[in-house]
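Repro:
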Amino acid sequence: MTDTSDDLSFDPDGDGRTLEDLLPDLRHVRLYMIRMEFTEPVASPIDHLRPHLRDHALWLRHQERTGALFMSGPNRCAEEWDGSGTLMDGFSCVAAAAGNRCGAKSDFADL
């Protein structure tokens, strides 16, 4: 279950489950990988995205707190950033759009 408290400590020794206990649940985890990129090149990706970054950060925080977000971040290359990013979540808003279930509890929230 996703813990929304301020205690973010990680103590694997405090969890008595074995790998064999965990694997059956992990086999049923469904993750969606969403790659986000511009359809047309822009001169300055950060300037283009800046008006939307606050809402994006708040949305990511909400996804994390509800247990939907697995990981997210910019795609980087050695030269420069093209504005692209990748998001992996346990309950994709893309897959859930028909059911309007964006932000619903993910498959891995109870692990």
